[in-house]
Amino acid sequence: MAPPLVQLKDIALTFGGTPLLEGVELSVSAGERICLIGRNGSGKSTLLKIAAGLIEPDRGERFVQPGATIRYLPQEPDFSGFNTTLAYVEAGLGPGDDRYPARYLIEQLGLTGDENPALISGGEARRAALARVLAPSPDILLLDEPTNHLDLPTITWLERELLGRSSALVTISHDRRFLTNLSNATAWLDRGGIRRIARGFGAFEAWRDEVLAEEERDQHKLDRKIVAEEHWLRYGVSGRRKRNVKRLANLHALRAARRDHRGATGNASLTAADADKSGALVIEARGLSKAYDGRAIVANFSTRIQRGDRLGIIGPNGAGKTTLLNLLTGALAPDSGSVRLGANIEMTTLDQHRESLDPKTTLADALTGGRGDTVMVGGKPKHVSGYMRDFLFAQEQMRTPLEALSGGERGRLMLARALAKPSNLLVLDEPTNDLDLETLDVLEEMLGDYQGTVILISHDRDFLDRVVTSVIAPDGNGRWLEYAGGYSDMLAQRGGDLMREAPKKVAAQPKADKQPPAPTAAPRKRMSFKDKHALETLPATMDALRAEIAKQQALLDDPQLYARDRKAFDAASHALTRAHDKLHAAEEKWLELELLREEIEGG
After folding, report:
1. What pLDDT was estimated at residue 111?
2. Tell me, what DSSP letter sits at residue 118?
């Protein structure tokens, strides 16, 4: 096995009472793609920061292979001190690193590099942070929720980019499909300790269930053994004193083991408060259109949503998903067209902007509205501590200010607030953000059992496949198409992936005009930044390949090489062939780019 690039030994860290990390071991070798799994609050982000050298543990050792480079992607990047996104990305490069990858990645991720970091959206901030950690091509990438705030096309691009790199990976994510496609090993952080299997996330959940079942059997055996020892002490025939003392000590040890065992954390108990049934028709939209600044966001869209439907709206950031959602629910007036809501609609909405509450508000007050210790759940009172337990909050967190909650805990809080209201129509904008995998499971089950209608926006492909019955996706120029089934079904029917960028408005040509259009000046060609860089660097690449060809040819000119060292002869022959192929491709590319440059300059 290859020596580790980074290794953590016997890591321990305690915040307050219960140890967060206790004797944790983690090693990352070249070529490993590890997904780090665990409940919200289990210490995943903290462990990643320790691996990055940003936090000192209470105990333990951190080893990094000399010369190995590490880049860490935080959940909330710090842009202070940078005037543009390009400046922020270039600051992540090491001394002597080529500047080209920074500009290239900025462009690939849909940014210009001139954006003011103080004014960008969450998705743009995430893309800039990704460009910063990817640009140096480090030996180890530590990624904390890399898909947060990214749209589906960008997530797909990121998967391909990471699969094409040789960097070792440690990734924290709630996106099952992303983890399954990328990982070849899994580290499970659970109750302060860590377990690991040399298989990707696709094998994790079945393995986890086996581990927990075995643990439950062991605890049952321990309980039976304690009962047997207690029975012997009370009723057994007296033996030698030393033997009795030893068995009594064993009993104390068994009781201590039982007392110190940290049981598996329970699952959230998500239940939506049901209102009376709505009518069979929930929403009918006819010819909906909406435009901003001359750009069509929604153009002539019609649909009928029936009671019990689960509708998913997907698309790139900026395509107009939230606008379409607001049009369908009547929260936004269309420029043209009509929306009719069915009879007896009770709507509950969870939007993606979770900062609407005062960060100084306590958890209990956020749930009760500051009105005592009772939450109204479906019109019935329930004590706030019991309702908190349903969403995996401990009773001692009642007076915790919201600013101290993790992203996942804030997500659970917003779900708790939304699901307490009686409803027969749930409208969820990015409900999966920051939720851990177990809570996602329970949310999926709750939506499956929900008696009403669900409309949601999500970038989580696995969640969409498990929950929705139809998908609405953009088709350019404000057109939206509805597909039966989940995300995978949509791709199969569509015959391709979603576009990366939001659709741009193009002028429509009059259909009645059969005459050929008047000739117009062809758009002036331009060389991309990537082509310019290739044109500048290809001559040096070709010189290096010619030197390699000369080197291998010199080896093969030795008439005794074949008889003396057959392996060396074969290696030199293969190397010579590869170098010739690469030189031919480089010369063709250089000639193509040189002709393009002359054409542009001549034009």
Report:
1. 93
2. G
